[in-house]
Amino acid sequence: MLVLLGNILWFILGGGLFAWLAWMILGCVLAITVVGIPFSVAAFRIARFAAFPFGKRLVDAQMVGDDRITGTALANILWIVLAGLWLAIAHLLTGISCCLSIIGIPFGLAHFKLAMVSFAPLGKRVVLG
Question: Which domain holds residue 72?
Answer without folding.
Answer: 2-128
